[in-house]
Specification:
The structure holds two protein chains of two kinds. By secondary structure, chain A is of the alpha+beta class. Chain A is built from four helices and 20 strands. In chain A, strands 12-19-16-17-14-13-20 form a seven-stranded mixed barrel. The chains are: A alpha+beta, B alpha+beta.
Chain lengths: 315, 229
């Protein structure tokens, strides 16, 4: 075990996240893991790590960390104005730090989440095969919580690196407008005539209620309240629930496993990483695509990304 | 054994399907049936998620190894093939000691008032039923159980709590449920168990599993303290 760095300022919410805990939803255990799985994979690739190796996920405002060892790192996702000893450092590339160096990050202007990857991946508490932090249940990561000042970032051993160039063509472009492609949800037939079409035409605004579980979206309400209540039924990251008298809610990596609200849409797998970068106040549109088109889109995107990240899969 | 309930299948994303059963029958038998089918599908090649709700099953497949049509057929076939039983044998039997009311059951007084019950009637109505775990969902290890006595039916809290203690026993709608971990939650909390329901290091980290038979045994505050320490 090697101590790589010490957290000086934790930022708004910095957590250990990896590829999550797939296939555990029947136990009520959410996927968790990086909400923007593509950015996590890119930061890891820049260091030659396995694509789902555990890294730090930083929400809105990044941390300040002091290196305790000579060690490389790589940043991805939202640009949080990272500086190493006062010098700007770029994203999507290997950066070499020395013991005693300070990495400072501030608030992102666009995008919600940044990733800091370290060689070999960072350590965390294992739960069901993953070290991702699930804050509502206090599971994984560092004691199941967000990092605090004084916590240490550790890795099992300093791994040998085969770093990789990350071309601009695969780096996410972050702005304040998001167009997410989505299929009609399984409950679409339950909504009143025209409501699903209105949903796909609506310009929505992300609420301040936005975390790893999901984002509330303002600017759309159903015309008619739906009759009856729905029994608890499965939901997934990318599911958009629409309560009868409330705002649509887009679920992300920490999505609960079942929900009782009608599912109006399902964001296509290729766009879920994009959705993870929505910040409060951003504008969001959902564009309706067929399941067949969604599969074509992810196949094309996967081919492009696969040239840089062999083995990367949206599913 | 009787005929399996009617269902329809709808697309759930580009790589998923939702089988929705028609309502109206025996809700406990249906939930157990849905969970048994979902358990069987989970190990199929190409299936990445297989999750049952109270009256539904969702599967998700990996489109790199399985096409949409075959996964839909797989789901439909599994449902038709499974045996629908009114009362399937329990997979295990669990006894859960519960201290009802007071600080452990902060919503029991309001529930008594709303449903015109004495506290004793509430405790008896809840503890005299033998329940089945219908599904785990909503939060890690959260167990939905039924059938709940109609005397105890109640809507969820208008404002969910930010934190419900691990071991809390609640009721909502036609179900009772137990929080295996502390979590936010909107169920009416009527009691709490001192039993440990979660071991993060175990292969099967939760005591509850769908199909298990559960009995609640009322205990006093003193017993709660003794068992919790």
């Amino acid at each position: 075990m090697t101590v790589l760095a010490r957290i000086e300022k934790p930022g708004l919410q910095t957590t250990v996240q990896d590829g999550g805990r797939p296939g555990r939803r029947h136990l009520g255990v959410p996927l968790s893991g990086a909400t923007d799985a593509l950015s996590l994979a890119l930061a890891n690739a820049a260091l030659g790590n396995p694509l789902g190796a555990a890294a730090l996920e930083c929400a809105l405002t990044g941390p300040t960390i002091a290196f305790e060892a000579d060690c490389a790192f790589a940043l991805s996702g939202a640009d949080m104005n990272a500086e190493l000893n006062g010098e700007r450092v770029g994203l999507y590339q290997r950066v070499n730090a020395r013991a005693g160096d300070a990495l400072t990050m501030t608030s992102a202007r666009a995008g919600a989440r940044a990733y800091i990857a370290f060689p070999g991946g960072v350590m965390g508490d294992d739960f069901l095969g993953g070290v991702s932090t699930y804050l509502p249940g206090g599971l994984g990561g560092v004691e199941g919580r967000a990092l605090r000042a004084g916590d240490f970032v550790k890795c099992a051993e300093l791994a040998a690196m085969t770093e990789r160039d990350i071309p601009a063509s695969v780096r996410p472009m972050l702005a304040h407008d998001f167009v997410l492609r989505a299929t009609r949800g399984p409950d679409a037939p339950l909504f009143a005539d025209g409501d699903v079409d209105r949903f796909f035409a609506a310009g929505l605004t992300a609420d301040k209620r936005a975390d790893r579980m999901g984002v509330r979206l303002n600017g759309f309400t159903l015309t008619a309240s739906m009759t009856g209540t729905m029994n608890s039924s499965p939901v997934f990251p990318g599911t958009v629930q629409c309560p009868p008298d409330g705002a649509p809610f887009l679920l992300l990596a920490d999505a609960q496993t079942t929900g009782g609200y009608p599912r109006i849409a399902q964001v296509i797998a290729a766009d879920i990483s994009v959705a993870a970068q929505i910040r409060p106040g951003d504008r969001v549109w959902f564009r309706n695509v067929s399941p067949e088109d969604a599969l074509d889109i992810s196949r094309c995107k996967q081919e492009l990304i696969g040239t840089v990240l062999p083995g990367f899969c949206f599913y | 054994m009787s005929a399996a309930p009617a269902f329809h299948i709808r697309a759930f994303g580009e790589n998923g399907w939702l089988a929705q059963f028609e309502s109206g029958g025996d809700a406990v038998a249906l939930a157990l049936y849905a969970n048994a089918v979902a358990d069987g599908l989970r190990t199929e090649n190409g299936v990445i998620d297989s999750v049952a709700g109270i009256d539904s099953i969702a599967i998700r497949f990996n489109p790199c190894t399985m096409d949409a049509e075959s996964s839909r057929d797989l789901l439909a076939r599994a449902i038709r093939k499974a045996r629908f039983k009114k009362t399937p044998a329990p997979v295990k039997k669990i006894e859960i000691p519960v201290c009802y009311g007071g600080a452990h059951g902060p919503d029991s007084d309001a529930l008594c008032e709303k449903n015109e019950l004495t506290f004793k009637e509430l405790t008896e109505a809840h503890a005299s039923t033998t329940y089945r775990v219908l599904m785990l969902g909503f939060a890690p290890g959260f167990a939905y159980m039924g059938p709940l006595s109609e005397k105890l039916n109640a809507p969820r809290l208008a404002t969910p709590r930010a934190r419900v203690a691990a071991g809390s026993v609640g009721v909502a709608g036609a179900f009772t449920g137990v929080y295996s971990l502390a979590s936010p939650g909107g169920w009416n909390i009527i009691g709490r168990t001192p039993a440990r329901l979660f071991d993060p290091n175990a292969d099967a980290p939760f005591v509850f599993e769908p199909g298990a038979e559960v009995r609640f045994l009322p205990i006093s505050e003193d017993e709660f303290k003794a068992r919790a320490s």
